[in-house]
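Now for one specimen:
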Amino acid sequence: YWKLAQSKFDKDKTIKRLNELVKKEEEILSNTFLKPRVHSWFNMGKILLFIKKLFFPQKERGSLTVIAVGPGDPSLLTIEAIKALKKSKVIFYPISREDKGSYSAEIVNKFIKNKKQIPLIFPMGRKEYDSELIWKNGAIKIVDYINRNISVALLCLGDTSIYASSFYLKKEIQKNYPQIKIKTLPGISSLSLAAALGDFQLI
């Protein structure tokens, strides 16, 4: 088995053969006449699976994660947001216009400073911008990376469900690229922070 796993001559045939061996082990396990040897065969099956994963890992698939970065304080980022930021290879973030920075990118700077960062102009309610065209072009840019099996993150200030422009971009992708896997991570909104600081209930 070990020599088979180390084979570099024909990767496809090797993977196929490993799958056949694992299937054979499973068939042996299901044979009631060989119960005394179940434990050893089961361990061998686990070894084969380990070798397969070690030498032939599955290719990473591209995906999009919409990450809410909270109201402004990096300490208010969720654990899931930090994990997703570290995992993502490309970071898209909103800006109001080309000569402006991004507040959401500043919040998570320590986690993305060594990653590829791409700004996207968001209309944010201004009439001088064609919203439909912006969402369409933004979706094309994001999907281009995802189709190359690259994990992508889209930053959202505050929470993803409260006045979030990222919702419209996500909707555009879902409409025109339904095959794209999208995960949304909520965050602490400015409303929640204000309520906590002011010691009052929102509802």
Notes: The beta strands are 63-68, 90-95, 116-121, 151-156, 182-185. The first helix runs from residue 2 to 6. The chain is about 50% helix and 15% strand.
